[in-house]
Design brief:
single chain, alpha+beta, VC0802-like, five-stranded mixed beta sheet, 9 helices
Length: 287
């Protein structure tokens, strides 16, 4: 038998209930993608996911990113031409910058571009996060990847450790007030935009990890109220046959949110990469 402490709790029982808590944090306003993965393979999962993301980044935003970089170069060149008009203080700053050499400046430019996709260490088992910056729109970005992976003609299995992807359009601190502001911002183009001409059936899905600040029911009520009261549309809740699904991801002190279509369930298996591949494999065997 296990030894008991003065409080009457078995020490062996305490060891069995020991869990590893994550130590990473996400700042409010963060956009990106959560990914679940095989346990103890978080680094490998991040590596294979970075390959997928870099390829999709080039495909979707390559031209736009190159244009942005070209415009920055033009601005910097004009700044150099106007160097004679700089104040003494600005002139000193420019000379200090030039002392680092052109290679450092080039590396800084490369680092800025790399930060468009930046993996953040959450120190959380089976979960990784990739922070995205403009021009990436995480909802569109992840769905495009799912479409590629679900394509029947694409028979190559691209991942081994990645399981499920969840886009995060924006995020906020864990409070009811901030949650309301976040919901209003994220759902607006899907439910309240003037271009929206139909009434949608919708549902809310909440996932909580190391999170106990707000109750699941309170989160759902707040999000639902923002949808129903935000416009003149007659949107309605339907948990089984919905047109739109609002995903709410709660991690420690952060709440992230995005909106996906019904094909999230029907076609893309909740964006579960493994299940999409298994479905394709089964269909190929039946042919």
């Amino acid at each position: 038998m296990g030894k008991r402490t003065s409080g009457g709790v078995s020490q062996d029982s305490g060891k069995r209930k020991k869990f590893k808590l994550s130590s990473g944090f996400l700042d409010p306003g963060t956009s990106g993608v959560y990914a679940t993965c095989a346990r103890k393979h978080e680094k490998q999962a991040a590596q294979e996911l970075s390959v997928l993301f870099e390829e999709k980044l080039e495909e979707m935003y390559g031209d736009e990113l190159r244009k942005i970089n070209e415009e920055k170069d033009v601005v910097e060149e004009k700044g150099d031409e106007k160097g004679e008009d700089l104040s003494i203080e600005d002139e000193v700053k420019r000379e200090l910058t030039q002392l680092h050499g052109p290679n450092d400046s080039a590396n800084q430019g490369q680092n800025k571009q790399k930060e468009i996709l930046k993996f953040i260490d959450l120190s959380c088992e089976c979960v990784i996060f990739c922070k995205t910056r403009r021009p990436v729109v995480s909802e569109q970005f992840v769905k495009s990847i799912m479409e590629d992976l679900a394509d029947p003609s694409n028979k190559i299995k691209r991942t081994r450790y990645i399981q499920k992807l969840t886009p995060i359009t924006y995020s906020c601190s864990a409070s009811i007030e901030q949650l309301g502001n976040l919901a209003a911002k994220v759902i607006q183009p899907h439910f309240h935009d003037p271009k929206v001409t139909q009434n949608y059936k919708f549902a809310v899905e909440v996932t909580r990890r190391n999170f106990n600040t707000l109750e699941r029911g309170d989160i759902i009520k707040k999000v639902v109220s923002e949808v129903l009261n935000g416009s003149e549309h007659n949107h309605e809740i339907n948990l089984k046959n919905f047109d739109k699904l609002i995903l709410v991801e709660c991690f420690k002190n952060n709440i992230g949110m995005s909106v996906v279509d019904s094909d999230y369930i029907t076609k893309f298996r909740k964006y579960n990469v493994q299940q999409i591949y298994e479905k394709k494999l089964k269909e190929q065997k039946e042919e």
